[in-house]
Amino acid sequence: MRSEIKVFLFLIVCLLAGEWGTRWVEPELSKDVEHLEGLEAMAQRLEPRGKSNVLVLGNSLARCGLDQGLLSEGWRLPSGGAAQVEVLTPDASGIVDWGQGFRRYVVETGSRPEVVVVGTGRVHLNDPMEVQSERLAAWLVPKDERWAFVKDQKWGMEEAIPFWLASWSRLFANRERIEPLVFYRLVPGYEETSRLINHERGVAMAGRSGGKELGAVTTRHLQRLIDDVAKVGARLVVVTMPVPEVYEMPREAVEMLKANGVLLIEGGSKMTMEAGRFPDGYHLDGEGARRFTTWLTGSLNASFGDTDRR
Length: 310
Prior knowledge:
alpha/beta; Rossmann fold; five-stranded parallel sheet; 5 strands
């Protein structure tokens, strides 16, 4: 019995050491974590009234496709100042991440951007089938709204447990970033076993969603973001980002934006570029971002006064 207690205490010490170590090196794990860790400071920069603050919400499409310097220099806001741009652009994020991040770092902090720009791809405004619950718990969902968020998602225990673990433990929240650094190198057979588990989990989730109409599009999270932006007195602009293939936004999202008087600038269908401007086959390179941002600022300056202030 005494040896079992020692083993248990040893495991506790290892977990605590791992937790402390993860928090210490967290910003070094990836550029995405570094960005998420900087969102508190970003919110503080948005706080002062009277400034021409612009908050960009999006993912890597917006981060790579918008030249912040050119946007700041070229866009003249109704307040008379040049745009002072801040960004909330986590990797592989969508409308749920953007809405929750906006609530945590703008609504709850008292930050007051003049304009909120959502840089989106074709499907990122739709309610997703799945979300990255660990990132939401650790960085995006306001702490006092976590219970309501889990209830709203209608999760079972399999989805809820990772969310709650990530809300307490950064070691757990970052496990997918830590895995390549530790487990794949030190644990024999880990990669093969992990791949098998993920495959089985994917099969199980596909089975559970078999009764759903996969083609159905819902946009309740988009409506909530629209309402939250209006609540803080900001104006919302949605910009579709260019990718190699020209695309149109889903009808449901377009109709919701129109019904709420949101300015929609469709770069995804109107701003075409040669394939060489997408070196990885998806994201714009620096020159592509400069060309798109120049086009976008022209569109913003030409049409920004055409919709009612929210």
